[in-house]
Amino acid sequence: MAAVRVAVGIVRQGERFLVGERQPGQALPGYAEFPGGKLHPDESPKAGVLREIAEETGLAAETGHWTMEVEHIYPHGHCLITFVECRCDDRREPRPPFRWLTLSEVEALRFPEGNAAMWERYRRERIGGQGNASPRDAE
Questions:
Q1: What DSSP character marks residue 113?
Q2: With contact defined as beta carbons under 8 Å apart, do 20 and 98 qualify?
Q3: How far is the C-alpha of 92 from the C-alpha of 94, rounded, in Å?
Q4: Helices (H) and strands (E) in the chain — how many of each?
Q5: Which residues pair with residue 85 across a beta bridge?
Q6: What domains appear along the chain, each with residue ranges and CATH number?
Q7: CA dihedral 43, 45, 50, 51 (to 10 degrees)
Q8: Torsion sign across C-alpha atoms 28, 30, 32, 37
Q9: pLDDT tens profile 44-93
Q10: In Å, what is the CA distance from 37 to each residue of 45, 103, 129?
Q11: R_g of the chain, CA atoms, integer Å
Q12: Which residues contact 33 (CB under 8 A, 6 or more apart)?
């Protein structure tokens, strides 16, 4: 089975992060998620993540330089996920189910397991290891 290409944004606004909750009818309902989704054919991860952020949250963002690629096989499919650091200066509130959370609030959430290694690395490299824990994996 070929991997589905996905781009996910780690969107920051100062010390806050943009996080949503997966809804009923989606894979892994109730788990936390960063904005993102499937890439269009020939779409770059940076272009795709900006499109997905705008579609899902109604906010405009800019991509940074930090990226990380993770390949993960979920029960519902095989994904090649590119995580992209983004910045959002848009002061409007995001569309639900997305909201701005502090680092400690993000670390208390349960994310799909494909996100855990990425978050730990991102926190270590880009936040300087602040905080005591990483988001809980899906069990």
A1: G
A2: yes
A3: 6
A4: 3, 7
A5: 10
A6: 4-127 (3.90.79.10)
A7: 30
A8: positive
A9: 999 999 999 999 999 999 999 999 999 988 777 898 999 999 999 999 99
A10: 10, 23, 27
A11: 14
A12: 8, 19, 20, 21, 22, 111, 112, 115
Give the percent of the chain with pLDDT over 90. 66
Secondary structure letter of residue 28 according to DSSP: S
The phi-psi region of residue 129 (left if phi > 0; otherwise alpha if psi is between -120 and 50; otherwise beta) is left
**DSSP sequence for 32-77:** EE-SEEEPPTT--HHHHHHHHHHHHHS---EEEEEEEEEEEEETTE
CA-nearest of 57, 124, 132 to 88 is 57
Pairing mode, strands 77-87 and 4-13: parallel
Please, how many CA atoms are within 13 Å of residue 17, restricted to the half-sphere of its CB? 25
What average pLDDT does the structure give for the chain?
A: 88
- Pull the structure tokens for residue 93: 């509130």
pLDDT at 133 over 60: no
pLDDT band at residue 117 using 50, 70 and 90 as cut-offs: confident
